[in-house]
Amino acid sequence: MKKTKKNFSEDERILILDLLSRHRSVVESKRTDAAFMSRKRDSWKKIQDEFNCLYNVTP
Question: Residue ranges of the Myb/SANT-like DNA-binding domain (predicted)?
Answer without folding.
Answer: 5-53
